[in-house]
Amino acid sequence: MERNIKLQDGTEIKVGLVGNPDSKTIMLPVAKEAVYGQEAESLRLWGVDPESGKHFVEGLVDEFQLIYFDYEGHRLRHSNPDHLTPENIVKDLLTIADAMNVSKFSYYGYSWLALVGLQLAIRTDRLESLIMGGFPPIDGPYKEMMVVTSKTYELALRNQNSSDSEEQSDVSPEKVDWDQISVKINTDQTRQFVTMYEHLMEFDDRKIQHHIVIPRLAFAGEQDTIVYGQNFGNVTVDIVGILQKNRQLLEQLGWQVEILEGLDMDHAKAMQPATVLPLIKPWLINNL
């Protein structure tokens, strides 16, 4: 079943619900729309699965009921520059669950959608388990990402009227070539991520850990360290380093922590279905 659901800002997102309704439900906001043709070939060159959403659904539907949708894609098409706050994102997710008549569910998010999962976990009692990929549950790089997204927004403002810049759409902060970028990025797309991180500047992810008592898993690729150049604040977002540093503490708090090994296991590779499913599927089966 697929249907369009109206979110807090009035925009509508396409959401699917598949699987046995007697099974546990997993929310997959990472279920990207499939792309084909030349765009798909370009993604494959970078090791990105152009049908990742489809493959996530196919990989889990035999064991679980799935609510799946492409929240990032929706926000890049329908930007919410002044109101993409953690609170409003959580309201969107709960609105989707309500519209699909799902009361309890597990959540899997990657990168900024992983930090959204942490916000969801402290704002509702409807979660049965939480999986965070590519973003650490403790000491998250909120301030570093605030620098990167602010610099990206400034770049977008400078370049929006530049005639020699090529238009590039559907860009999120994690997908930009920070050293070589000269393209024009939509200012509303970038501003909404600034808004999100602005509202996380005072967030203390250590203080909230005792509120989360459900099964929870955190993972990252062993090469998930992104170094941003001078134009983007000279910051390093060391996802795997933070996760490794806090691994013992996280495990004491009840998290399962996994580092995905491989010399090419960077931020992009560690989000692909072929990498993620062998980790999260057995974990979900064992913990739900």
TrEMBL record:
Name the UniProt record assigns to this protein: Alpha/beta hydrolase
Domain of life: Bacteria
Gene3D superfamilies: alpha/beta hydrolase
